[in-house]
Amino acid sequence: MTAGEKAKALAEQAEGKATKAMGQAVGNERVTAEGQAEKSTGHARQAKEDVKDVFKR
């Protein structure tokens, strides 16, 4: 996994986690869902890069 892509995936996960927590704290379901979606996007990006790494070996 390239360092840039790994950092991007981790940043998306962290930002999504923070957004989800903020949405839960204020009781806003839409913001909570957006945070979860962003977090999932980060996980998907990381999984994609992990698969690419496996085939590079």
Regions with little confidence, pLDDT below 50 for 5+ residues: none
The pLDDT mean sits at: 92
The outline comes out as: elongated
Helix fraction, binned, reads over 70%
Number of strands: 0
Strand content: under 5%
Rounded to an integer in angstroms, the radius of gyration calculated over CA atoms is: 13 Å
Query: Span between N and C termini?
Result: 12 Å
SS summary, helix count:
2
* Backbone structural class: mainly alpha
Largest sheet: none
Spell the H/E element sequence.
HH
Report on the structure:
The chain is an all-alpha fold and 57 residues long. It is built from two helices and no strands.
What is the gist of this entry?
With 57 residues, this protein is mainly alpha-helical. The chain is 91% helix and 0% strand.
What topology emerges from the helices and strands here?
Layout lengths: L2 H24 L2 H28 L1
Task: Name some characteristics of this structure.
elongated; 57 residues; mainly alpha
